[in-house]
Task: structure prediction
Amino acid sequence: MRWARTGLMAGIALGLVACSPERVAFRSTDITGATYASDFRLVDPAGRERSLADFRGKVVTVFFGYTTCPDVCPTTLAEMREVKAALGADAERLQVIFISVDPERDSPAVLGPYAAAFDPTFVALSGSAADIAATAKVFKVVYERVAGNTPDTYTINHTAGSYVFDPQGRIRLFVRHGQGIEPIVSDIRQLLAGR
Result:
């Protein structure tokens, strides 16, 4: 009788496993359920305050950088332009957000055209130094100013990855810099399919 009960319990357990939803295998780092990277309240080049809720219904990628960045920032934004192109008909369901960590140099007149040069739908955001620092803290993004030969030639070391939110506004992924577009396109397609 004990063996029969054990067999019955094992059969029920296997049945539950078979009926449970399949775990999604993302190519980027899955951070679903993370309690950080929850939201932002920053201004776009037109002076409008924006938050994550403004983009509900789309997959949203968020990247922190600055317009005079020599390599990581333009590479990331160019890569996201390619991702968008690869999505084809689903391209309009992706929103790329670029948050400046250099409010001193990245004025609205600089920031807007910079993002639009990669894609006119990319949204650039900034704010006061305190606003940027608070937002970076929420996202666990690290950045620091590195002095150059003159006061105007400083660079900024910063976190090089991007965050990805699903259409419901939930944080889902962290994308490492330089992994190529194919994994990102694959992951975004899964999020657009409701996974």
Remarks:
- The chain has one domain: 26-192.
- Strands lie at 29-30, 41-43, 49-51, 59-65, 94-100, 123-125, 143-146, 155-158, 162-165, 171-175.
